[in-house]
Amino acid sequence: MLDLPDGTVLLSYFNTQLFVYLPDGFPLPAGKPTITTITANADGSYHLVGTKLNGISEGATYGDDAQMNSNYPLLRLAATDGSGHVYYARTYNWSSTGILTGSTPVTTEFALPGSVLAGGGTNYSLVVVANGIASDPVTFFGPVWVDFNYHGTPQTGTFTFPYGTLAQGVAAVPAGGTIYIKPGFSTERPTITKALTLVAVGGTATIGH
Question: Which residues of the chain are modeled with pLDDT < 70?
Fold first, then answer.
């Protein structure tokens, strides 16, 4: 038996057939994580602050066969474009693995999978999962990066291959999205006609002077 990230249990029957056990009832409210803020790091990863990211139990034990600790955050992204695609981001550098942390803020870093990085500007529903219990979802836009000092190819708006101009970033980001700008200088004076957020990451970004 194996605990799965969505709270179900996978059972392998003599390695010939698989079953999934779906518990009834509802997740315990006391074990529900919350997401407070998500901010970009200078290396392209993200910093998440929330509560109860490590759950209310260390996990499960199945005889002498398996130890399934789950007192750490999993991060799930579901694309909202109708494709049905679901991704998991790698979390690391947890501030704590202690359980029952209550209202005390805890943090984790997370790195996006390549499929999400390649889809800059895509809208995702993001949740944190602890002990198989998911937080309320928050909207997360796939990253759109701009670096005024980058003149190479390709320019796809990712951290590694950012756009070289703000105008490119504005064209790529959906309404309500965020453009992350690496330190640098641009004389551009673009016209922006949709709601979006500009964030300088790792230093000062100067535009229009």
Answer: 115-121
User: Counting Cβ atoms within 10 Å, is residue 21 exposed (0-12), middle (13-18) or buried (19+)?
Assistant: exposed
DSSP string, 120-153: TT-EEEEEEEETTEEPPPEEEEPPEEE-TT---S
| Cβ neighbours for 45, distance < 8 A, ≥ 6 positions apart | 109, 110, 111, 112
How many CA atoms lie less than 13 Å away from 171 in the CB half-sphere?
9
pTM over cut 0.85: no
CA distance 103 to 176: 29
Two tokens at 93?
A: 């550098």
Q: How far apart are CA 22 and CA 43, in angstroms?
A: 39
- Nearest CA to 20 out of 132, 126, 135, 128 is that of 132
Residue 26: its pLDDT value, please? 81
**Tokens read off for 159:** 């951290």
Tokens of 142: 């796939």
Model pLDDT, residue 204: 94
